[in-house]
Amino acid sequence: MMEAPLEEERPTGASVGIEGADHGQELKVSEEAVSFMSSIEPEELQRCVFADSLVTVSEGGRDLGKFSVTVEFAHRGQQPCMLLHAQSQGTIDDNPCGTTVTAYLSTELEVLEEEYHEFVKLEGKSLDKRCHMVQRDSHMVIDKVTTVGEEVTKESVSYPMSVLRGLVTEGSNLLLMRLIALRKKVPENMNFMSLDQGLHIINTTFSELGLKQLDVGGETVEVFGLERTVHSVEDSPTTWQSYFLGDGHLASRVQVGSPVTMRLLQLPSQLQRGFEKIPLVWEEDMQMCSKFLDRKEELKANHTSYLRQHPEIRALISDFLQFLLLRKPDDVVQFAREYFLPFASSHSPEASLKPLSL
């Protein structure tokens, strides 16, 4: 599954700050990290526009689920940006679980808006976490809702954008690693900031694991390794190791100490039947859901306006239904035809037999 850095909860309305993150810890965002983000070229982003699809397996090789990432160019309002959508679905001890991330990112990987959803369905009690962050009035506004069984906890926090220089989130992290892998080199001192499950600002670092040989689909290939470490304000750091093909495709991913591994089953060049179709869950896709709701409201307003301009429609339909229920004919279609035929401006026996054109 996609990582959840920590399982720490934060009281609603807790104070925030770049130094301390509520615990007095000094945060160190390196100039090398910030420079890397600002040095990203459009050609590099173009090479990142593709889909990854991996399987999640246990230590014994049991299939536990799937993990997918897609990156594409998009617009948020009038602003060109990158749209990243990642989704993992699987089981934990045979309990369904999943994580979905949808992020709109600037060309320098600055988060414009991001939606994170995580769930675990347990017998008798389920866990559901939703976190939404969006830039608004020079601030990053973050709202989090955690549901455990019937208990709902809501948290909100706002950080000035001036203190979030070098922020890496669950969404931007996935695109950042693709870019690093394509360059095949991790600059020294790659220290960014991130947010833990309690919405505290913490440090996250990237380091190079070098090259190694990996079997993918029965073929031995060279892959480039990256290690991401998420530091904690209270607990031990959590580390993930990812290996990438030369073209930036993710080949394997594992949390250090976990028996679960995500791995690529076939090289992109081996796929004979095209890309695997990823199940569409439009309700969890922020862009598609927004378009659906906008279109729904647009149609509703249009229909309401038309009915308001033609009040005779309601009277006509009401009269027809009343007459229909009084007569209760066996052939409703024939009854409707005979009822509405006199309303036609002009008709002939031949014209009445012609089907309506769409």
From TrEMBL:
InterPro entries: CATIP_N (IPR048777), DD_CATIP (IPR047501). GO terms for biological process: actin filament polymerization; cilium assembly; determination of heart left/right asymmetry. GO terms for cellular component: cytoskeleton; nucleus; plasma membrane. Keywords: Cell membrane, Cilium biogenesis/degradation, Cytoplasm, Cytoskeleton, Membrane, Nucleus. Residues 32-259 form the Ciliogenesis-associated TTC17-interacting protein N-terminal domain. It holds the Pfam family CATIP_N. The keyword Cytoplasm applies. It is found in: Cell membrane; Cytoplasm, Cytoskeleton; Nucleus. Belongs to the CATIP family. Plays a role in primary ciliogenesis by modulating actin polymerization. This is Ciliogenesis-associated TTC17-interacting protein. It comes from Labrus bergylta (ballan wrasse). The lineage of its organism: Eukaryota, Metazoa, Chordata, Craniata, Vertebrata.
